[in-house]
Uridylate kinase (Sporobacter termitidis DSM 10068), 239 residues
Amino acid sequence: MAVDKPVFKRVLLKISGEALSGDKHFGLDFDVIKSVCHVIKKCVEMGVEIGIVVGGGNFWRGTKDGGGKIERTRADHMGMMATVMNCLALADVLEQMDVSVRVQTALEIKAVAEPYIRLKADKHLKNGRVVIFGCGTGCPYFSTDTAAVLRAAEIEADVILLAKNIDGVYSADPKLDPNAVKYDTISYDEVLAQKLTVMDSTATSLSMDNHIPVILFALKDPENILRVITGEKIGTIVG
């Protein structure tokens, strides 16, 4: 079956750590990771330049797991380390599929990854390499969603793809409210005003200020990444 042409040249894909754990809800599910990487490979072969920011919640969530037990900054740094494990797992599976990839981290970890340098990341992307960004922003108190928006702005991505465990933005939590309505499109102002949990408010404001559209969709079917990149209307567009 023929695949439509991509509507985006350069994208920033944000993958939650929890999504990589599959039904186990902790650690890594390599069947899930392989299916995600297989779709990423298809997108690269279509000429799409892909940067990836991955969360670390499948191993450690700073505010949730460390809250009240250890100092916040240290808890957040532990979360940054968790993202690196996910980055290396994604990189290895992609390399097994003959996809050229580089891992760059906001905290310097010379033995396993390049330090994040914007111009170097840009060069990698232009050369067809997937660039996986680890350690979030490198600063405590900022989420990996904020890191995704920051990296998207820095690499001048056309769009931010939020691959999560939910298939769009709803007026309320659909697990708790059977009357929750799913939005096809919604503005940043509405997201902030209604306090919807698309991203945290810092990430949403940063995305709004830099005029970067966000598409939120479910990663349960990894082919959704390809569908969004080729212009199919799924999930919710925030912009």
User: Anything to note?
Assistant: Residues 10-238 form a domain with the Carbamate kinase fold (CATH 3.40.1160.10). The mean pLDDT is 94. The two ends are 32 Å apart (CA to CA). The chain is about 40% helix and 20% strand.
